[in-house]
Amino acid sequence: MENQSLFINVVSFVLVLSLLLNTSCVSAQLREDYYKNTCPNVESLVRSAVTNKFKQTFVTAPATLRLFFHDCFVRGCDASVLLTSPNNKAEKDHPDDISLAGDGFDTVNKAKQAVDSDPNCRNKVSCADILALATRDVIALTGGPSYKVELGRLDGKISTIASVQHKLPGPHFNLDQLNTMFAAHALTQTDMVALSGAHTLGFSHCGRFSDRIYNFSPKNRIDPTLNFQYAMQLRKMCPLKVDPRIAINMDPTTPQTFDNTYYKNLQKGMGLFSSDQILFTDPRSRSTVNLFASNNQAFNLAFVQAITKLGRVGVKTGNQGEIRTDCTRVN
Fold first, then answer.
1. pTM (2 decimals)?
2. Which of 59, 88, 217, 270 has a 20 to 30 A CA-CA distance from 318?
3. Is 199 annotated as a binding residue?
4. Binding site annotation covers 196?
5. What's the Cα-to-Cα distance from 297 to each of 98, 155, 315, rounded to whole Å?
6. Following DSSP, what letter does each residue of 269-290 receive, concatenated?
7. What is the pLDDT of residues 134-145, one digit of tens each?
8. What is the pLDDT of residues 43-98, one digit of tens each?
9. Does 257 lie in the same domain as 146?
10. Which domain holds residue 133?
């Protein structure tokens, strides 16, 4: 047993060391001025395209932000989620990704066209970097923090429906499940709570949380951690015999503003998913929720740190990636 325990400890140490070394290499590859000599105005080109798209539809913001998260958590931040498949076998075809709003994909494609319209930039900026920049821009456009984006990612060449399986957090996850999934990407519990604040924007479908308001358990028809008045409002918006794809704002208070209201809602039992509400009901993360609820600046700072770390996940180097001429297909 001692030898087995020693072996497990050694393996764990090697895995952690490998993760740290990989993170260090990625950090060295990524830098804010990566395109200084090849496409110095890349940020203004992307921002202009994203702003124009945002003026057309607000959905641009939550759709782009969610697209970035789904991309990074599956195969790393390599824009593999943008790839299409003739037989519907790409990442975007997985049930967990089918609900990704088309406006997010359209935002990246339009920004890519804007960048490539500059002869100096054509085919020099990756779709993965454009998605990272566009994500920062939609956050700022909705009142959230603006921040420097590390650049230098290559676009991945692989996108499979199978790779999405068990890679994204579910609406019923508990704190241990959330922490385990985020830790696999070198993200802490504080990072996880901060990134969950992205639910201050966007919407979900009734089918993702209907069990919390109709059939929670044999003893409780409604999840007892859910604010009863809020549950009744959700029932009105999501009748039992209705299309489960009806969209509901995840933040019922300020759904079009990137702010800390999400955490204030959790304090009131108004987290739409049980994986949201658990952040407050579990004492291990409650203090972080309370901090972010009381201090918007603290939330913004933590969110910027967390999304910057998220942007380093699985970055492709060398022949692992390329700069796609078309974000929807490999070269």
1. 0.90
2. 88
3. yes
4. no
5. 34, 33, 29
6. T--SSHHHHHHHHSHHHHHHHH
7. 999 999 999 999
8. 999 999 999 999 999 999 999 999 999 999 999 999 999 999 999 999 999 998 98
9. no
10. 42-168+315-322
